[in-house]
Amino acid sequence: MLWSVSAAVLLLLIGFSFFRSFQQSEEGSPYSQQFITYVNTTTDSIRMVSLLDGTHVWLSEQSTLVCPETFSGDVRSVYLEGEAYFEVTTDSLMPFLVKTDANQIKVFGTSFSVNTRYEEQLNEVILTSGSVQLQRLDGIGLINMVPGQKALYSKESHTVEINDIDIQMYGSWKYGLISLSNASLPKILNCLEDTYKVKIEMDTTSLRGKRYHFSFKRSKGLGDALQQLSFMTGVPAKVI
Q1: Is the distance from CB of 214 to CB of 188 less than 8 angstroms?
Q2: Where are the beta strands (DSSP E) in 41-109?
Q3: CA–CA distance, 15 with 157 (Å, rounded to integer)
Q4: CA distance 61 to 49
Q5: Is the distance from CB of 213 to CB of 225 less than 8 angstroms?
Q6: Are 98 and 75 in contact (CB under 8 A)?
Q7: pLDDT grade, residue 61 (50/70/90)?
Q8: Bridge partners, 98 (sequence order)
């Protein structure tokens, strides 16, 4: 209980810091003094937020979203710290802009996720539909993404690495689920390794060519997912 209270207080302080940073970056805009801060302090949960323009945002645990009370001018800007999934309402006259501590994403009516804590010094963007442009904080465009791509932005070198991914792995993100259909064992292992940032050892020799339907709830942890996988295949799996 004490940890939960401390975490909540810390996130509120962090949220206020982001509020000030975002407010200063928006000086001169019509809405620069009117902001709302959404904070998800609950462990192993996802909070859904609906913005006035119809955009929906799913905030992962320990994440903060700062946005103006109303959108006006020529852009809809929000600030994110942590991880979130966005379903942005299309408005060709007012693009949507997600700002982070290191870069920003320009959106044109799209479904995508952003994780500012993917790994140390890396921000992650995954595009599931529509189109986005990954930009530097000064607005200089770096790359236009297409659905099925994952971008890793380096905070140190300011470079972008693009990888192709299977969108179905991320379609249930906002529900806290990852679901794979007709997937090979290497694909399942890659998904688990990418989700929990680990390396997994499993003897797949006898399982080559086999396909599985595999779903797991991310919040239950890697141990639960590996136990489920081992039960399904009859082969033990462990972190190395």
Answers
A1: yes
A2: 47-50, 56-59, 63-68, 76-81, 83-87, 96-99, 103-107
A3: 27
A4: 13
A5: no
A6: no
A7: confident
A8: 78, 105
CB 204 within 8 A of CB 186: yes
Residue 61 tokens read as 């645990």
Strand partners, 184: 211
Cβ of 144: how many Cβ atoms within 10 Å? 12
Strand partners, 240: none
What's the pTM? 0.73
User: How many CA within 13 A on the CB side of residue 179?
Assistant: 8
Give me the numbers of helices (H) and strands (E) for the chain, helices first please: 3, 18
CA nearest to 147, candidates 124, 127, 173: 127
Fill in the amino acid letter for 120: E
In the prediction, which pLDDT does 171 show?
64
Are 135 and 145 in contact by the 8 Å Cβ rule? The answer is no
β-bridge partners, 115: 83, 124
Q: Classify strands 149-154 and 160-164 as parallel, antiparallel or unpaired.
A: antiparallel
* Percent of residues, the chain, with pLDDT higher than 70: 83
Q: What spatial distance separates the first Cα and last Cα of the chain, rounded to whole Å?
A: 33
